[in-house]
Amino acid sequence: MLRLLNRIAWGFAIVGGVVALGLALMVVVSITGRATMAAPIAGDVELTQFGIALAISLSLPWCQLHGGNIMVDFFTQRLRPRRIAALDAIGALLLGAMAALLSWRSAVGALESKQTFEATMILDLPMWWVYASLAPGLALTALVAFVQAGLLLAGRDLAEMRA
Q1: What pTM value is reported for the model?
Q2: HEC string for the chain
């Protein structure tokens, strides 16, 4: 199960990276078009906002899996490893709860946005696409965090998840 979770998180991160790379290329083309021909890509700001949100949500599970989130350990440097693991477990539980809540609300927001036909200003893209695309990455982040909390509370090493 841990290996599968690791592979799914890796796949999500790769897709997030590809989205970010595509956006970077689009921005370069749009700025070049704006500067040289007064013809930027229509809706480039909308696409950048949505794409970066998607890239971040898809990269969060991998970041959590590998301890890439910012941790302030100034006050815990002198604690015993077991206490640090307990605090890390609490942090993982809180992150898992927050990510689960955000995933749920993104899904609900997608349904409500679809019902109201909410769309973007320039490209007239359905907003529900954006909300719906955020939910999987946030849900996987929650799952990773809950599994990590379980491992930490069981006294196991988080390196097991990264194998």
Answers
A1: 0.89
A2: CHHHHHHHHHHHHHHHHHHHHHHHHHHHHHHHHHHHHCCCCCCHHHHHHHHHHHHHHHHHHHHHHCCCCCCCCCCCCCCCHHHHHHHHHHHHHHHHHHHHHHHHHHHHHHHHHHHHCCECCCCCCEHHHHHHHHHHHHHHHHHHHHHHHHHHHCCCCHHHHHC
